[in-house]
Design brief:
By secondary structure, this protein is an all-alpha fold. It contains three helices and no strands.
């Protein structure tokens, strides 16, 4: 009979410990915690998406500006090339000029 009392005592202590563990365990609602965490991440993702869109818009504006500048550079380069060609044509034609044309050219080129 003493053995049974030992087993009952051990069982009562184990049951008491298990009861205390589950009774005094903090009440955590895992689903609520998960929902809050998901909402937190959703707001961060939305914020990052908005920042990304702002950056994409800024990149688009800058690309458009670069395109306009590139076209302007191309136009000016063509204009400069045209002026160079006209000057080269004029210089290469100097040996065929008469006295009046040479005088006029140097007068215009080197004014007093």
């Amino acid at each position: 009979m003493e053995q049974w009392l030992k087993y009952i005592g051990v069982f009562a202590i184990a049951f008491g410990l298990a009861f205390a563990y589950f009774y005094f365990q903090p009440n955590t609602d895992c689903d609520e915690l998960i929902k809050k965490t998901v909402e937190s991440y959703k707001s961060k993702v939305d914020s990052l998406k908005q920042s990304n869109q702002i950056l994409q818009d800024s990149i688009s504006v800058k690309q458009d500006s670069i395109l306009v500048l590139s076209e302007n550079i191309e136009k000016r380069t063509n204009s400069i090339d045209s002026l160079k060609q006209a000057y080269e044509d004029q210089i290469s034609d100097i040996p065929n000029w008469g006295t009046n044309e040479l005088t006029e050219y140097f007068t215009n080129r080197y004014p007093n």
